[in-house]
């Protein structure tokens, strides 16, 4: 009996799976075949997935189903393979594959396929019209863009599903800059005002570029709300500050706080007056050493902490890398973190700078100015000089050097920041060298003329000088050399028509350079190519050329014809093709050809035709005009004004278009006083005027400016016996210092009103009447008094023992100058002069600048002048007292007791302020803190400098003077502050704790009982104060 046929089972051995079995099977099929094509077709059908499923489950494969007519004829309907997932899963389960693994693999494959399809989807590029409107060009990519938007809309509902979120992330990354703004704002929505983002997990996967787009959209949304609600104040402007609820504020708040509280930076910024150039120099590069690269190296924890503040997690790179032995200072880490956060986005740069403007507005006198409700009172404060306090902001103005660091580390700044960048680099070089030259001052004035210049509608509101010196308000450009004044009798006609052609050519080249910068996103042709960037470039290319070189030639008026510019442009493209040869340089050659074609079509050909048409029109217009007659017997520039007025002709003044970098010491001239109000449509965020004033208010910049004033007065004015106001540079520096002083008020106005104080050389006209400004009082009236003060101090030194006039003084041939105080009356608003007197006093106390006997007469003169200049209120002059302490500690143990008694007596007198501030303000003031710190430092030098009993006695006197009590009586105000946790009192309390920690316990308890402090336990030695200076 024959065996029955075996039933087919779903065992793996019955299926030719795997590469080895499949090869064996197909070799057997070819061996028994006569038609290879038919064999291949049959093999594909019999080994397809459908056939294997049909063989396993007893169904009919799809390709073996009969036609519809055959089914109707036989009336037999076979069972087709439906590809139902259930039998497939049963089959795979029989093979040992779990359902979870099947679902994971299928989902991963589908997700990968979708992501690949998304990446291949074309997107319509954005184009910008000449009027600045962004449009989308009509190309086949519009369908792809719309498909992505539809997919984004569908996938948004699955943003919380972990397995489907990558598809949404892929769509957003593919859209990139084309992501709709409403979607970006939705991504930036917070759970509430204090917590993180709603979609923090999704935002953390978007990458830095898209995250920055989210920060921008969130900032724009808050800016729109603040702008729309200016009338009803439903949304406060505080939303756009570091204390606001924007994502950018949450990210940068810690970094800014870390920068302005950096111990070394605070100590250096408070030390305004120093004696040596080496002490005056400040290595600003150390503040930016961590921001050279776009990625913060070694500071990943700082970046992660900022993202964690809004709920966004980020995995640090190089977590296993060892820490460097010498870490960057916290200021450098802060600058690097800010650079990492904003990247190269101009809008984020503007947002950060605008927040720093708002932060600076709350410092010093800016806070009082903000609280002033009436605009008329604000205007009056600006004009009479009562707006703002001391020029020496010190550590309170550390947001100003942060602005400079951000500008200098950003990289390629937008065009609108170009002049500000030049000014920042000039000031930074001066700070690093510790000296500011006349050339630098002239270039700074050139930058300020460009930044603060009023528009056509605003010039009528500007304060005018009686001399009507219109040349001072001339616009400064970056592009042209100084133009020669016209010497023709008919100034409306050009002396040489080539000058007109030159200006047309310059406009055309400037437009072409702008085209290159906007049309070259990779910056291939922007900067010069060096061998470090392209190895062997100098040996291949003999004459390099780039856009920057052409721009410099345009600025220096090197191009004489359009053909010269054309040759340079073609040379630039030719150099690119000459160096980039072979397959590796194919992309560069293609890009050069594309840009060359676009430049020739869109720029050169139209510009050449326009230039030719303009020149032709110009020549035709000049044909009918009479030529100027030969010069007569008069000197150009000395025309009789009466004759000009009689003839009714008005000579047009030639514009002095000066390149800022070409300005020298001969160009130093004070800026004309300006005051004007901007329309809402003209307000730009951030305000360049505010940023420029903040650069001048940098405490390290103020340090070099005040030192330059001291040197001019001691060397140029006194030795040359000249008038201070007649010095070519001194009024200009005073004007810069006054701009720095009112920086907090300008920042409070945020560019809505701009104001430049006059230099004080002459009175200004206000509403048709002469107005004597504080600058005029300082420069014209009080600077001579200060010069006399310096002369009296020098005479005291020469008349003292050891001086060359001592014998004459003994014989009454010479008499000592009397102490004058009445002449300093009414000078309490002259903040600039107060700063100079403070610096002169610190210089006088430097070791070797005077002697002990002469100081007995010199010090009271300066102290009396400061009493009048400050109005008796010296409580908040922290930089001055820090500098004074630094100078006195340089004596070490050789400090004369008479000098010690002079200084301590004067400081205690300044603590006895009445009518200006409350006792609490005096007790918690920087003056009180610095006084006790100075006593502690003297005490550490030994009893020879400051005995212990005198130390405790001076502490009692300081407490009695600041609390308006009597020595020997208990001070309840001081005792209450001691027992409280008031933050404003902590610095002063720490100095007293330091004093008591070096005193025997019994003596310390006795001193506390005398003051009224109820504290049984003796104090422990605290850490040294951060304000410690190098003695």
Q: Which secondary structure elements does this structure contain, and how are they paired or packed?
A:
Elements: H1 19-31, H2 36-46, H3 49-57, H4 68-74, H5 85-94, H6 99-120, E1 126-128, E2 134-136, H7 141-155, H8 165-175, H9 181-187, H10 200-204, H11 208-228, H12 247-260, H13 263-270, H14 277-280, H15 300-308, H16 330-342, H17 346-361, H18 365-371, H19 375-384, H20 399-409, H21 418-433, H22 438-452, H23 498-519, H24 537-540, H25 547-555, H26 562-579, H27 586-623, H28 641-647, E3 674-677, H29 688-696, H30 699-720, H31 730-741, H32 743-749, E4 753-756, E5 764-766, E6 769-771, H33 774-799, H34 806-810, H35 831-845, H36 852-869, H37 878-889, H38 897-911, H39 919-923, H40 926-940, H41 948-962, H42 972-979, H43 986-997, H44 1001-1011
Antiparallel strand pairs: 1-2, 3-4, 5-6
Helix pairs in contact: 6-8, 7-8, 9-11, 12-16, 17-20, 17-32, 18-32, 20-29, 21-22, 21-29, 21-30, 23-25, 23-27, 26-27, 29-31, 29-32, 30-31, 30-35, 33-35, 33-36, 35-36, 35-37, 36-38, 37-40, 38-41, 40-41, 40-43
The helix content is: 40-55%
Distance N to C terminus: 118 Å
Helix- and strand-based class? mainly alpha
Whole-number radius of gyration?
A: 39 Å
Shape: globular
Which band does the percent of strand residues land in? under 5%
> How many distinct helices?
44
Kindly state the mean pLDDT as a whole number? Answer: 76
Strand order of the largest sheet: 1-2
Secondary structure tally: strands: 6
Biggest sheet: strands, sense, closure? 2 strands, antiparallel
| Model regions low in confidence, pLDDT < 50 over at least 5 residues | 1-13, 293-305, 314-326, 455-496, 625-658, 1020-1031
């Amino acid at each position: 009996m024959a065996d029955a046929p075996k039933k087919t089972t779903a065992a793996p051995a019955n299926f030719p799976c795997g590469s080895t079995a499949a090869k064996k099977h197909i070799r057997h099929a070819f061996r028994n075949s006569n038609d290879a094509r038919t064999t291949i077709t049959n093999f594909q059908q019999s080994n397809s997935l459908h056939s294997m499923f049909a063989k396993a489950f007893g169904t009919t494969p799809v390709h073996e189903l009969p036609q519809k007519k055959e089914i109707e004829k036989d009336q037999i309907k076979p069972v087709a393979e439906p590809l139902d997932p259930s039998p497939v899963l049963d089959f795979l389960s029989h093979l040992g594959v779990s359902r979870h693994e099947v679902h994971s693999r299928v989902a991963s494959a589908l997700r990968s396929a979708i992501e690949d399809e998304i990446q291949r989807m074309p997107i319509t590029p954005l184009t910008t019209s000449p009027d600045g409107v962004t449009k989308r060009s009509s190309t086949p990519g519009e369908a792809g863009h719309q498909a992505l938007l539809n997919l984004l809309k569908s996938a948004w509902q699955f943003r919380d599903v972990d397995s489907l979120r990558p598809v949404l992330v892929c769509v957003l990354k593919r859209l990139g800059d084309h992501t709709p703004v409403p979607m970006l704002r939705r991504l930036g929505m917070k759970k509430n005002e204090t917590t993180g983002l709603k979609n923090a997990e999704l935002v953390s996967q978007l990458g830095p570029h898209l995250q920055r787009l989210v920060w921008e959209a969130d900032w724009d949304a808050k800016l729109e709300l603040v702008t729309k609600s200016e009338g009803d104040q439903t949304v406060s402007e505080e939303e756009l500050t570091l204390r606001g609820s924007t994502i950018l504020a949450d990210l940068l708040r810690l970094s800014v706080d870390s920068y302005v509280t950096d111990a070394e930076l605070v100590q250096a910024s408070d030390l305004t007056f120093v004696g040596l150039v080496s002490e005056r120099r400040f290595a600003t590069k150390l503040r930016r050493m961590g921001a050279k690269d776009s990625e913060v190296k070694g500071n990943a924890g700082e970046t992660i902490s900022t993202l964690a503040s809004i709920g966004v997690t980020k995995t640090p790179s190089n977590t296993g890398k060892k820490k460097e032995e010498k870490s960057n200072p916290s200021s450098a880490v802060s600058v690097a973190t800010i650079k990492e956060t904003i990247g190269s986005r101009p809008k984020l740069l503007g947002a950060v700078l605008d927040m720093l403007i708002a932060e600076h507005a709350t410092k010093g006198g800016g806070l009082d100015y903000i609280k002033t409700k009436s605009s008329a009172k604000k205007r009056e404060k600006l004009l009479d000089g009562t707006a703002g306090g001391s020029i020496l902001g010190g550590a309170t103005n550390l947001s100003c050097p942060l602005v400079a660091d951000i500008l200098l580390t950003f990289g390629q700044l937008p065009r609108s920041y170009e002049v500000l960048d030049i000014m920042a680099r000039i000031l930074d070089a001066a700070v690093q060298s510790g000296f500011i030259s006349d050339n630098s001052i002239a270039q700074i004035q050139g930058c300020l003329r460009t930044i603060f210049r009023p528009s056509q509608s605003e010039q009528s509101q500007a304060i005018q000088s009686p001399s009507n010196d219109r040349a001072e308000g001339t616009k400064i450009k970056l592009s042209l050399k100084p133009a020669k004044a016209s010497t023709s009798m008919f100034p409306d006609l050009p002396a040489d028509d080539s000058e007109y052609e030159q200006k047309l050519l310059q406009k055309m080249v400037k437009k072409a350079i702008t085209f290159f910068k906007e049309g070259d996103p990779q910056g291939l042709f922007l900067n010069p190519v060096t061998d470090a960037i392209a190895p062997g470039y100098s040996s291949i290319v003999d004459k390099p050329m780039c856009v920057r070189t052409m721009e410099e030639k345009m600025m220096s008026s090197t191009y004489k014809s359009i053909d010269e510019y054309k040759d340079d442009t073609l040379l630039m493209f030719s150099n690119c093709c000459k160096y980039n040869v072979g397959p590796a340089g194919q992309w560069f050659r293609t890009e050069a050809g594309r840009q060359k074609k676009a430049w020739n079509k869109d720029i050169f050909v139209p510009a050449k035709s326009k230039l030719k048409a303009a020149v032709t029109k110009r020549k035709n217009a000049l044909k009918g005009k009479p030529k100027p007659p030969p010069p007569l017997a008069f000197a150009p520039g000395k025309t009789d004004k009466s004759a000009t007025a009689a003839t009714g002709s008005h000579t047009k003044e030639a514009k002095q278009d000066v390149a800022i970098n070409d300005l020298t010491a001969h160009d130093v001239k004070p800026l004309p006083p300006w005051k004007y109000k901007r329309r809402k449509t003209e307000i730009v965020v951030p305000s360049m005027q505010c940023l420029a004033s903040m650069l001048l208010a940098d405490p390290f910049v103020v340090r070099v400016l005040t030192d330059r004033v001291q040197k001019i007065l001691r060397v140029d004015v006194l030795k040359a016996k000249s008038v201070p106001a007649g010095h070519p540079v001194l009024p200009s520096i005073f004007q810069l210092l006054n701009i720095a002083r009112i920086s907090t008020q300008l920042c409070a106005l945020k560019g809505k009103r701009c104001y430049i104080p006059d230099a004080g050389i002459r009175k200004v006209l206000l509403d048709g009447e002469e107005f004597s400004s504080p600058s005029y009082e300082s420069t014209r009236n009080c600077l001579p008094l200060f010069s006399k003060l310096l002369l009296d101090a020098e005479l005291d030194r020469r008349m003292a023992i050891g001086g060359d006039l001592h014998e004459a003084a003994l014989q009454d041939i010479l008499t000592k100058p009397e102490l004058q105080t009445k002449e300093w009356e009414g000078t309490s608003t002259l903040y600039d002069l107060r700063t100079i007197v403070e610096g002169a006093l610190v210089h006088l106390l430097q070791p070797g600048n005077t002697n002990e006997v002469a100081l007995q007469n010199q010090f009271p003169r300066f102290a009396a002048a400061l009493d009048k200049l400050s109005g008796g209120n010296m409580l908040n002059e922290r930089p001055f007292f820090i500098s004074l302490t630094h100078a006195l500690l340089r004596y070490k143990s050789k400090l004369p007791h008479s000098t010690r008694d002079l200084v301590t007596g004067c400081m205690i007198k300044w603590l006895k302020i009445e009518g200006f501030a409350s006792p609490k303000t005096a007790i918690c003031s920087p003056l009180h803190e610095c006084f006790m710190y100075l006593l502690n430092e003297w005490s550490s030098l030994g009893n020879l400098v400051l005995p212990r009993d005198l130390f405790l006695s001076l502490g009692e006197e300081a407490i009695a003077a600041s609390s308006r009590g009597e020595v020997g009586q208990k001070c309840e105000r001081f005792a209450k502050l001691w027992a409280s946790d008031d933050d404003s009192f902590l610095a002063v309390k720490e100095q007293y704790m330091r004093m008591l920690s070096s005193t025997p316990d019994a003596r310390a308890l006795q001193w506390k009982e005398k003051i009224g402090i109820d504290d049984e336990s003796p104090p422990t030695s605290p850490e040294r104060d951060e304000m410690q200076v190098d003695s």
